[in-house]
Amino acid sequence: MKAALVLDTDNLNGDQWRGWACALCGARLYADRPLCKARDRSGELVQLWACAPACPSKPRGPSVPPQRY
């Protein structure tokens, strides 16, 4: 049985919503996998992406403050 994904979409930054950074750990995506679809603040359904095959051991995020969408 798969575990349910719990993702706090309120704290995703612009790069994570655009698919440029992992929705789970914030790392820049070079190899990725589809994670799930979520609705952004405007109500649009967006595909979120994650590191492939798995996230690095230490979460990383952008060095600049995230831009909220």
Protein model, in words:
The structure is a single chain. With 69 residues, this protein is mainly beta. The chain has a domain at 22-55. The protein is built from one helix and two strands. It has one helix spanning 14-18; strands spanning 32-39, 45-51. It has a two-stranded antiparallel sheet with strand order 1-2.
Task: Give me the strand/helix succession.
Answer: HEE
Mean pLDDT: 83
User: Which class do the helix and strand fractions yield?
Assistant: mainly beta
Large-scale geometry: globular
How would a textbook summarize the main sheet?
A: 2 strands, antiparallel
Please count the helical segments. Answer: 1
Total beta-strand segments:
2
Strands side by side in the biggest sheet? 1-2
Describe the structure in brief.
With 69 residues, this protein is mainly beta. The protein is 7% helix and 22% strand.
SSE order and pairing:
Blueprint: H1 14-18, E1 32-39, E2 45-51
What are the key terms here?
69 residues; mainly beta; two-stranded antiparallel ribbon; 1 helix; 7% helix; globular
